[in-house]
Design a protein that fits this description.
The chain is 71% helix and 0% strand. The protein has 2 domains: 83 residues, no CATH class; 41 residues. About 4% of the residues have low confidence. Helix 1 packs parallel to helix 4 and helix 2 packs antiparallel against helix 4. The chain has 147 residues and is mostly helical. The chain has 6 helices and no strands.
Length: 147
């Protein structure tokens, strides 16, 4: 008795049996959704570093969409790492976006003063003075931070 037929060949694709290489259109759509979620999650994470409020919004949108598409995240063939990437990216974007937004709101006047100072600073000495004024202003608001 030989194992030469397609029923014994593990690499053979048999459309009559689910899970043997052929994916249904529903699974393909779920995989597309997960890929989109991973992309938006990565975009949210990167954006939250440079533009915290925008990253925060994208992180929340990613989390909401991931919750609504949670059945797509349970698609057979996806590893827990794939789902973890979406959850981590959304969480990272939310945390960094929140911290960055709170920081920007708390120190808006100091940052504005620094920006105005830098506009008129034509030398390295003047720029260093602006930086010193900014750090002194932040240290005055947060005395336990240093200085």
């Amino acid at each position: 008795m030989t194992d030469s037929g397609p029923e014994h060949d593990p690499s053979a694709i048999r459309p009559d049996k689910p899970g043997n290489g052929e994916r249904s259109p529903v699974d393909q759509e779920a995989l597309r959704r997960v890929r989109r979620l991973i992309l938006v999650s990565a975009l949210a994470s990167i954006t939250s570093i440079f533009l915290p409020p925008v990253g925060l919004v994208l992180g929340v949108v990613t989390a909401v969409v991931a919750w609504r598409w949670r059945s797509a995240l349970k698609t057979p063939g996806l590893t827990k790492m794939t789902t973890g990437m979406v959850v981590f990216g959304a969480s990272f974007a939310i945390v960094i976006g929140t911290v960055g937004s709170v920081f920007a709101a708390m120190f808006a006047s100091e940052i504005s003063d620094y920006t105005n100072c830098q506009t008129g600073a034509n030398t390295h000495i003047a720029q260093d003075k602006c930086w010193t004024e900014l750090t002194d202003a932040i240290n005055d608001r947060l005395p336990g931070l240093g200085g």
